[in-house]
Amino acid sequence: MNTRCTVGVLGGLGPAATVDFMARLIATTPAATDQEHLRLLVDHNPTLPNRHDAVAGRSPSVGPALAAMARGLERAGADCLVMVCNTAHAWEADIRAAVDIPFLSIIDATVDALDERAPARVGVMAADGCLEAGLYQRALAARGREAVLWSPAEQAAFMALVYRVKAGERGPALTTALAALADALAARGAEALIAACTEIPLVLSQGDAPLPLYASTDLLVARTLAFADATPGPAPEQGALAHG
């Protein structure tokens, strides 16, 4: 792996999910020493307005703020960008237009992973703004798959759980409630589940789910490591070649 690859992280959306992504990235990196880990530049900015309100048009777009964060990370030396929030990918185009470095989409990383098992109907456990923006519905349809969604009441129950996680709550009660919502998607015919909200892995794991669970956080970690592995390292100095 090219450990000289510097990853820029658009974070704080929410804070615990950003830290969880970094912890999973560190735990998954095949490193035996500090120096074998990737350098991370993190803009941990929880001050952005509510993304769900912005998608719904109830508040201004967060695209300009995300673009500014992306430019700052590029100027600081990032070789690529990731964003630890599914809903904020509604402004992916703003981010890509603002920089000249690759942006690794959590949506693409997650839906691409489904190709290994090719389930036709996929339950999408996502927040309001992510669903209203149609991020996973479009990505799945483009690959010939159908998104299975909750009823309005179930969606409202999910959002209430997400805000409890954001408030710092953890424990078996939340896990049980999320597992019940996963069961509801299975009952509607889903053959696999996407944890399309980065708060979900904080309280729900594969062992709690009734179907194969594709956690977007883990799949963004995998995409990040794959990018770093495929990125050429710096050319060796002439002196190093002479003594090789």
TrEMBL record:
Cross-referenced InterPro entries: Asp/Glu/hydantoin_racemase, Asp/Glu_race, Asp/Glu_racemase_AS_1, Asp_race
- Provide the alphabetized UniProt keywords: Isomerase
Top-rank EC class of the record's enzyme: isomerase
Q: Which domain of life is it from?
A: Bacteria
For this UniProt entry, the molecular function terms from Gene Ontology, in alphabetical order, are: aspartate racemase activity
EC number(s) from the headed UniProt entry: 5.1.1.13
Matching Pfam families, A to Z?
Answer: Asp_Glu_race (PF01177)
Q: Which family is this protein grouped under?
A: Belongs to the aspartate/glutamate racemases family.
What is the name of the protein in this document?
Answer: Aspartate racemase
